Amino acid sequence: MDHIKLTNEPLCISTINELITSEDCGALSYFVGTTRNHFQGRHVLRLEYEAYNEMAEKEMMKLCKQARNNWSLKHVALHHRLGVVPVKEASVIVAASSEHRKESLEAVSFLIDGIKTSVPIWKKEIYDDGKGDWKENKECTWSKS
Asked: What is the pLDDT of residues 4-56, one digit of tens each?
């Protein structure tokens, strides 16, 4: 089953663990992206995310389908936080379960790269001087078209 979520609430790894755990799977793989306190020598206070929700969810579902076409997966979870995300808190959690580790590890890497490349989510860094910058993912393809 695929679990897609965009939320303003904090992300919870234990909730996602419950969603992807299965008695017939020996592997649970995760990527957790958190807000760090610096970027290129500037002190970051927080991140702020916005999304085109309907399109983002469709793109996330397409990524799940592509991952399932490439690997044998039981469950997939793609959860992304919107709104304000303080330092040390999770912005995104990508998780997958499979019978063996190779499938879920490779799928998680593919999925986080896919989110960065094709899902319409925007990030603004807010610095300690009160200023902020909108950031574009280097991998992003849709904003260049």
From this structure: 999 999 999 999 999 999 999 999 999 999 999 999 999 999 999 999 999 99
CA–CA distance, 133 with 107 (Å, rounded to integer): 31
What is the widest separation between alpha-carbon atoms in the chain?
A: 51
Q: Return the residue matching tokens 């989110």.
A: 115
Q: Fill in the DSSP letter of residue 28.
A: E
Q: Name residue 57's amino acid.
A: E
Q: What are phi and psi of 143, to 5 degrees?
A: -75, -15
Helical residues (DSSP H) of the chain, grouped into ranges: 13-20, 53-70, 101-118
Q: What gap in Å lies between CA 20 and CA 95, rounded to an integer?
A: 7
pLDDT tens for each residue of 92-116: 999 999 999 999 999 999 999 999 9
Query: Six-digit token pair at 52?
Result: 């085109």
Q: Which amino acid would we find at residue 55?
A: M
Whether the CB-CB separation of 119 and 59 falls below 8 Å is answered with yes
- What is the DSSP-derived secondary structure letter of residue 11? P
Q: Which two tokens stand for residue 47?
A: 């991140």
